[in-house]
Write a structure and sequence with these properties.
Elements lengths: L2 H8 L4 H8 L3 H8 L7 H11 L3 H5 L5
InterPro entries: Cro/C1-type_HTH, Lambda_DNA-bd_dom_sf
Pfam families: HTH_3
Organism: Leuconostoc mesenteroides subsp. cremoris ATCC 19254
Length: 64
């Protein structure tokens, strides 16, 4: 499971809630979670800020 999905599920957030909280469409976010597409750098930063983690953590470059 990728970190985007892991963080969303840990926080018990729905895709609809993610859309409301980040402005990223549900279908797009689902594609990110399922590896069908990759976020752009600006999107990684939005998601990292939303989850209060670093973009490097989300991408999987670091474990903390």
């Amino acid at each position: 499971m990728n970190r985007l999905k892991e963080l969303r599920l840990e926080r018990e957030l729905t895709l609809k809630y993610m859309e409301l909280g980040t402005g990223i469409k549900r279908s797009t976010y689902s594609d990110y979670e399922n590896g069908k597409s990759e976020p752009k750098l600006a999107t990684w930063e939005i998601l990292a800020d939303y989850f209060n983690v670093t973009p490097q953590y989300l991408v999987g470059w670091v474990d903390e």
